[in-house]
C-alpha cells in the first residue's frame, strides 16, 4: 500500500518519503509541482515614463521575474475567469503602480516601492528588498503593473518550485520527493495543489474514455 510521510519541513522546503508508489505517478506529481501549480507574477506592464538608462524591455523583464506571494484561492488565471475582459477584474488581476524619481542623489528602486491599488491585498513581492533599478539624479520611472495568475508551463517566471525525486539509500521501494518553493506558496501547498491537478487530469481522462466507450 502507498505510504507517505513528511520527513522534513520548513517554510521553504518539504521532504516527503514515499513508499510503494509507481515511479511514473511520483514523477508526474513532481513535474506538476514545477510547471502546473498556479502562482502570481507581473504579466503585463504599462510604462508611462522611463527616463532611466535601462531600456523599457529590460526593465519590464526584470520586474516580471519578481515572485509574488500568491492568493490562488481568490484569483484565477485570466483565461479561466468569467469576466472575459482584457483588463481583468477583481478575480483575475492585482494592480500595482511603481513611481520613483531621483532628486539630487542617485537612488535604488526596490520591490518594496511597488504600491498596490488595494492596500489590503495579500498579493505582494516575496521580499521587499529585491533591487529593480538604479536611477541617476533627475531620472524618473512611472508604470502600472498587472499581476496575474499563471503557471510555469506558460512561462518560467511562474514556476512554483524546484522539485526532485530520488531513491532513498538502502531502502528499496522508498523514494524521496523534495520540493523547494520559489516563494510564491508554502511547499506543503504546492504538493497539495500538484496532487489536486493530478486528480483532475485523471478525472478528465476517465470522462473521455467513458464517453468514447459509451460507458
Ligand atoms: Zn476576470
Small molecules bound in the structure, each named once: zinc ion
Do you know the CATH architecture of the largest domain?
Beta Complex
Number of helices, where a helix is a run of at least 4 consecutive DSSP H or I residues = 3
Distance between the termini: 29 Å
CATH topology of the largest domain: RNA Polymerase Alpha Subunit, Chain A, domain 2
Q: Please provide the count of β strands.
A: 10
Tell me the overall shape. Answer: globular
CATH class of the largest domain: Mainly Beta
Low-confidence stretches: none
What's the gyration radius in Å?
Answer: 21 Å
Into which percentage range does the β-strand content fall?
25-35%
User: Which structural class fits the helix and strand makeup?
Assistant: alpha+beta
* CATH homology group of the largest domain: DNA-directed RNA polymerase, insert domain
SSE order: EEHEHEEEEEEEH
The spatial strand order of the largest sheet comes to 1-2-10-9
Mean pLDDT, nearest integer?
96
Q: What's the number of domains?
A: 2
- Residues in helix, %: 10-25%
Amino acid at each position: 500500500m502507498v505510504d507517505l510521510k513528511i520527513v522534513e519541513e520548513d517554510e521553504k522546503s518539504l521532504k516527503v518519503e514515499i513508499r510503494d508508489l509507481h515511479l511514473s505517478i511520483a514523477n508526474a506529481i513532481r513535474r506538476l509541482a514545477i510547471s502546473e501549480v498556479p502562482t502570481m507574477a507581473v504579466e503585463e506592464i504599462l510604462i508611462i515614463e522611463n527616463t532611466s538608462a535601462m531600456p523599457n524591455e529590460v526593465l519590464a523583464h526584470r520586474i516580471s521575474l519578481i515572485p509574488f506571494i500568491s492568493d490562488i484561492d481568490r484569483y484565477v488565471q485570466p483565461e479561466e475567469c468569467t469576466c472575459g475582459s482584457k483588463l481583468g477584474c477583481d478575480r483575475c488581476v492585482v494592480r500595482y503602480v511603481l513611481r520613483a524619481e531621483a532628486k539630487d542623489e542617485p537612488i535604488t528602486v526596490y520591490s518594496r516601492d511597488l504600491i498596490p491599488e488595494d492596500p489590503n491585498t495579500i498579493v505582494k513581492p516575496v521580499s521587499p528588498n529585491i533591487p529593480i533599478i538604479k536611477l541617476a539624479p533627475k531620472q524618473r520611472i512611472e508604470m502600472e503593473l498587472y499581476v496575474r495568475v499563471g503557471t510555469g508551463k506558460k512561462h518560467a517566471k511562474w514556476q512554483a518550485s524546484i522539485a526532485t525525486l530520488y531513491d532513498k539509500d538502502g531502502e528499496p521501494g522508498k523514494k524521496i520527493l523534495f520540493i523547494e518553493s520559489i516563494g510564491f506558496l508554502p511547499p506543503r501547498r504546492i504538493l497539495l495543489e500538484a496532487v489536486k491537478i493530478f486528480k483532475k487530469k485523471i478525472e478528465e481522462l476517465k470522462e473521455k474514455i467513458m464517453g468514447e466507450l459509451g460507458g
